[in-house]
Amino acid sequence: TPREAPLATNSTTADAFRTTSTPSERTKKNDEKSQVQLRGSPMKAKMRKREDGPVTAIHSIDEFLSAIEDAQENELVIVKFHAKFCKVCARVILKYKKMAHQQRAADTPVPIRFISIESTSNLKIIQTLGVKKFPFLQIYRNRECIASFGTGPAHNFQRAVAGTIDQKMKTTVEEWDAFRAEFQNEIEGGLEKLEMLRLQAMMLENECPAEDANSGTGSSVGP
Questions:
Q1: pTM of the model
Q2: Which of 54, 75, 86, 135 might form a disulfide with 101, Cβ 3.0–4.6 angstroms?
């Protein structure tokens, strides 16, 4: 079950939840021992759906994985999970878009990207990542989940989300290393979930030719 991530002023505390890997030599040994490598996507050649505006809506497993895997080094990928039936989600849509617009227009220490995932249209993603409440937020950096928490009521959204993003942008390389060592199990679990999603995407792609074959003339049964 995803752990809550209340705001913290010291990024070396457990409140910030997950750690992230860095390209520094200090994490090389940990990477060799524990990091689960994601296999290359066989679907990378497909054109990714990109939308105008500060937030990109995700409509498939492959689009989600591409957003994580194609991110620049140290880029923060902010992921908001929401549901059509969630009243709080409806109230924070504009808050999230405004936040994304402000961050993208600002001179941030690292690149930043905002995406959103609607639950009923992306049920496999929701189930695999273990998201059970909405709105829910995750932040990824270098393919690793570094924050995962429910945002709470609408009036708390700005403080919880913007505050956490600001904290992550200010985290130093040494602090990332400390987080990664402390939350090694959570990191491995998160990478394994991404790998599970990759396998599901591959299975879905492999099912398409069979469906096409069955739809051909002379192969179906019936009038």
A1: 0.74
A2: 54
